[in-house]
Amino acid sequence: MLLGRDTELASLAASVAQVRAGMSQVVVLRGEAGIGKTALMDATADLATDLRVLRVAGVEAESEFPYAALHRLLVAQVDAFAELPDTQRDALSAAFGMADGPAADRFLVSLAVLSLLATVASGGPLLCCVDDTQWLDPESLNVLAFVARRVHAEGIGLVFTVRTGTDDVAVLDGLPVLPVEGLPQQDALDLLRSVVDGTLDLKVAHQIAAATRGNPLAITDLSGSLTGNQLSGALLLPEPLPVGHRLEAHYLRQIAGFPDPTQRWLLIAATEPQGNIGYVTAAAGTQGLPPEAADPAERARLVTLAGTVRFRHPLVRSAVYGGATSSQRRAAHRALAEVTTRTNDADRRAWHRASASLQPDEAVAADLVRAADRAASRGGYAARATFLARAAELTPDERLRAERLLAAADAALTAGAPSQAHRLLDAIDPDLLGPTDRGNRLMLRGRATVSVGGERAMARVVESCLDAHTTLRAAAPELAREALFGAVDFALRAEHLTEGTDMRELGAVALAYATGDTLTDELLAGFGTLVTSGYRASIPVLRSAFARIADSELDEAELLDHYLVVVTTSTRLWDDEIREAVLRRCADVARRTGALHVLETVLYSWSLHETTLGRLDAADELLLEVRELRSAVADMPEMWEVFRSPEQVAWRAPQDARERLERAHAASTWLGIGAAANLSRVGLVTLELAAGNYAEAAAVADALIDQETAGEFGRVLPDLVEAAARAGDRPLAERALAQLTDRATASGRPWALGLLDRSRALLAPPADADALYRSALSTLGATAAVGDVARAHLLHGEWLRRQKRRKDAREALRTALAMFEDMGAPGFADRARQELHATGETTRQRGPDAANGLTPQEATIAALARDGLTNPEIAERLFISTSTVDYHLRKVFRKLAIESRRQLGRVL
């Protein structure tokens, strides 16, 4: 047992027991260097001798090589690759350089690793120990963090050790942490006594224990460096004692006492990232160092030579490397570059050559560029960015240097490091770039701005894209078209918050440039026509684009590039069919290719689509997937607020609905996402209407219509007609109805025409109103818009009651109440219930469904199983393992008192 670690060991033993029982566990051991994290991990592995144990340790010198740590962790499990789905197997094989093929999305690699570990664990519980996590390469770290957030019922344990004070492991935030503190005083004294052979003065012992704060490494190594007289109290201790951040200096002084050959040998060993003893020995030989040069360091227990070179502690390695002069480090890298000859180690050789170079050298820079290309082929874009940035530093030609910095920024952005991309872009003198690269730089800066987020980020990027379009127009017309389309895409998201231009100006540019017959041209022309010539004129152009994107032969990449503009504009046209078809196909493509950043946006847009139709349960299921994905692609807190779906909140009407809507509005406005900010106001209109606060609803809806920039609030017009009519503001209601009439008749879609009849009925004389309501119900009933059908029944019932037709009113209101209760819309259900009470009918509130006992994730899994998906299909859709799906389904069956998935359709 470890001295003084009973509490930590008990916690770790409990975690191992859970893994042994088939449940998954994650623990992050966090503490300062030398505090005993690795010893606790070793002890955990000892507790798991009946489990399969996989281990890997981060190596600072290896952190630039993509998927290096992950490959070392999983290389022995290569036989299990055959059991992975084809896309996952191909992605993981490409990441590890085991097969040729396109670079895989890192999230698809992450899902592949989750599936692989679950497959391995199906043969018995599995423990993965990841030491010195702060020094993993970024690709490996992100994958393991993804897996750690998704394991549940597979029998997988993940133990990470992380040094405090490191900033590169934020992706582990939120995982269970077991802090590793210094030893209690008595245990620190006992450890000190156990490592001191001679006399130990009690006062001196207390002084050492206090100064080291109970750090076991500091206690052990400090005691070995003090003289017998100092330990016995005959001489004063040195001041200050070499502990904490000074421990590295202590090792450096110890190393300085070795003979010069030993110091040079240690530097070569510290420079070789894998501890490859063959390379270390060969490199030492090129410098004339004899094999016995390592002996003094080995006798001092600073290194161990047993197949590989292992340092006593990472602090020893960093002391050796950090304590050398730059010329000494370059010599070590040069020696290793000379002997690192294996084909598989070409990237390491390139890095050694680069690290050995002091002056620009095109041959070395070109070697790094080739390494960067190899990294990209494996999906290692973080490594590509690093290689290219260093290549740029070594490039003699200033124009080529600027081009390589631009390529590095592109790679950094792809790797999910927008702040690094910004720094690289700032280092480029635009005058050194040609027009094409200048335009690309502007586009990259815009994308990086949105990815970093921050105040008004979305609002500012439109102007950047428009500038890129202007720069590219003469030199690269196709790229100019892409830049202009990007400006339109971002403008449709920024809406009224757009800075540096306005919709009409942007629309005029789009209309003038959209002269081709591509999908991009048609969408640009449709947008330009919408904002310059109006709603009715834009419809034929937009419908043509919709037909093109609905074509099953359309290239998948083109679909993903254009879908958001199509979804946005089809919403303006009440074209729910094309919107759903595009969203469904995009979700399928994004899932299959592992494009999680795209998938989260698709699913969120789909949840909004379902909400506008009133299919709130379907929206809930999609939002659960969005939450799962948001935790995978971790974003700023403001983005969590944006992705909470304000309209869904309004329909569900929880007690804190107004507070949620205000938070979403504030966060969206701060980020410059005008569309999301306005969505919270649309939600507020819905909330006020449900509560019968008609004047308040009319004020909010009217303000939205007033700030409209591109026909985005057509669907709010029926709400404004209802709110204004019920608030007694007939002029406002008639003005809104006139606008709605123009747009709905131009659209011609059944959904729009049904809403138009419903709105006309509100202002029609009694002789005409009943027929209009019935026409609205008939037309809307043929659509998927169940929410609007329910509201039509409610409005019809309210009108019938006011006409003293109580029997007819009760029938309509009962239908509305049942529909609202089925939807889970308590605000509108209460409004219908109050109207029924006014007719003299007594109602009671529906009790909770049996399904309400399910957690959101259980409900989603149950719904997917009900719809016929297999466990592996559900796992792939929700980015969890098959074992976790099986676990949750068993809980669902128990809660719902059923025995098979065939019964789910009956109870859900």
Layout: helices, strands, pairs:
Blueprint: H1 6-20, E1 25-31, H2 37-47, E2 52-57, H3 68-74, H4 86-95, H5 106-121, E3 126-131, H6 138-148, E4 156-163, E5 177-179, H7 185-195, H8 202-212, H9 216-225, H10 228-232, H11 247-256, H12 260-271, H13 277-286, H14 295-299, E6 303-306, E7 308-311, H15 314-323, H16 326-339, H17 346-355, H18 362-377, H19 381-393, H20 398-414, H21 418-426, H22 435-452, H23 457-472, H24 477-494, H25 503-513, H26 519-533, H27 535-549, H28 556-572, H29 576-593, H30 596-613, H31 616-632, H32 637-642, H33 646-652, H34 657-671, H35 674-691, H36 694-706, H37 717-727, H38 730-747, H39 750-763, H40 766-781, H41 786-802, H42 806-823, H43 826-838, H44 856-866, H45 871-878, H46 882-896, H47 904-907
Parallel strand pairs: 1-4, 1-5, 2-3, 3-4
Antiparallel strand pairs: 6-7
- CATH superfamily of the domain at 6-179, by name, is P-loop containing nucleotide triphosphate hydrolases
Query: In angstroms, what is the radius of gyration?
Result: 33 Å
In the sheet with the most strands, the strands line up as 2-3-4-1-5
CATH topology of the domain at 6-179: Rossmann fold
Distance between the termini: 52 Å
Structural class: mainly alpha
Question: Can you give a write-up of this model?
Answer:
It is a single chain. By secondary structure, the protein is mostly helical. Among the domains are: 6-179, Rossmann fold (3-Layer(aba) Sandwich); 185-241, no CATH class; 252-341, no CATH class; 594-691, no CATH class; 851-907, Orthogonal Bundle (Arc Repressor Mutant, subunit A). It is 66% helix and 4% strand. It is built from 47 helices and 7 strands. The strands form 2 sheets. Strands 2-3-4-1-5 form a 5-stranded parallel β-sheet, sandwiched between helices. A two-stranded antiparallel sheet has the order 6-7. Helix 5 (106-121) packs across helix 6. The radius of gyration is 33 Å and the shape is globular. The two termini are 52 Å apart.
